[in-house]
Design brief:
single chain, alpha/beta, 8-stranded parallel β-sheet, NAD(P)_OxRdtase_dom_sf, Aldo/keto reductase
Length: about 325
């Protein structure tokens, strides 16, 4: 067995910001969806106890659940922060642009949506505020609106999710030229079986401007946990269909085989290896992974302390190419 890990939590600087974060971000998309408030509190408690301090949510989570309106995840996180009295030790990231009643990146919507998120979170500032998805709003409009939130002290740093290389470069150039708050991070769809969604032009812009990367779908909707296998029934869950589609990709079984090999060598679970590979990619600060229950959390947390060998990294690189 080859072991390369440390028990001491480490933290990384998020791009050019003053934010220091745990190298695994806890996804809040399941809060108010597949995890009720009690389960969510337990997961948040366990994450924080392990040294985790970077919680990711959005104003639209979880509007897709019948009876929900959006913002349920933010509300649960806000209730947890108040009940634990730990606001100052948690980096809270949320997003604007996809809420059913506050969609788009227009200036008025960004202002109103931020106020809604602040209210649901029960905080006086958002640590990291993402534009959730790019649209046809001029960069001058949304960059200026985000800068206003920073100047008012309602947001500490801004970032972008689901944005193309050209629009990212345009937004960064405008902010630089006008002396406005610039994006410090991006949140792309990126994992071992989805590399072309980030590598190439987007990754090059990120690297050139010193941004941090905080990938979502880090475990490919659960596929990279190893629960879904060729010829197997998989695991019944709200996300099973999304994960199982990777079995139809020729790379899917090859990646699972490589993950199995490395996991056996390291004496860890498959998910731990998948996250460790991603965390070691250029510019990546903290992959995002969610846990519905406390039992699902340990293999995710273990990735923060796992270092793969060059040979193990090469094996995974080749399988996922």
């Amino acid at each position: 067995m080859t072991e390369s890990r440390s028990d001491a939590p480490r933290y990384v600087k998020l791009g050019s910001s003053e934010l220091s974060v745990f190298p695994l971000s806890l996804g809040g998309n399941v809060f108010g969806w597949t995890s009720d408030e009690a389960e969510s509190f337990a997961v948040l408690d366990a994450y924080a106890a392990a040294g985790g301090n970077f919680v990711d949510t959005a104003d639209v989570y979880s509007a897709w659940v019948p009876g929900n309106t959006g913002g349920e995840s933010e509300t649960i996180i806000g209730n947890w922060l108040r009940s634990r009295g730990n606001r100052d030790s948690v980096v809270v990231a949320t997003k604007v642009g996809l809420h059913p009643e506050a969609g788009g990146l227009g200036a008025a919507n960004i202002k109103a949506a931020a106020e809604g998120s602040l209210r649901r979170l029960g905080v006086d500032h958002i640590d990291l505020y993402y534009t959730h998805q790019d649209d046809d709003t001029p960069v001058e409009e949304f960059v200026t609106a985000l800068d206003a939130l920073v100047r008012e002290g309602k947001v500490r740093a801004v970032a972008a999710s689901n944005i193309g290389a050209d629009r990212l470069a345009e937004a960064l150039a405008f902010a630089e030229r006008e002396g406005l708050a610039k994006y410090v991070a991006v949140q792309p769809h990126y994992n071992l079986v989805s590399r072309d969604t980030f590598e190439g032009a987007p990754a090059e812009v990120v690297a050139a401007h010193g941004l941090a990367t905080v990938p979502y779908y880090a475990l490919a909707s659960g596929f990279l946990t190893g629960k879904y296998r060729p010829g197997g029934a998989g695991v019944a869950s709200a996300r099973a269909e999304g994960a199982a589609r990777y079995l139809d990709d020729p790379r899917g079984p090859k990646v699972l085989e490589a993950l199995d090999t490395v996991a056996a060598e390291q004496g860890v679970e498959v998910a731990t290896v998948a996250l460790a590979w991603l965390a070691a990619r250029p510019t990546v600060a903290a992959p995002i992974a969610s846990a519905r229950t406390v039992d699902q959390l340990p293999p995710l947390l273990a990735a923060a302390a796992l270092e793969l060998t060059p040979a193990q990294t090469a094996l995974l690189d080749d399988a996922s190419a």
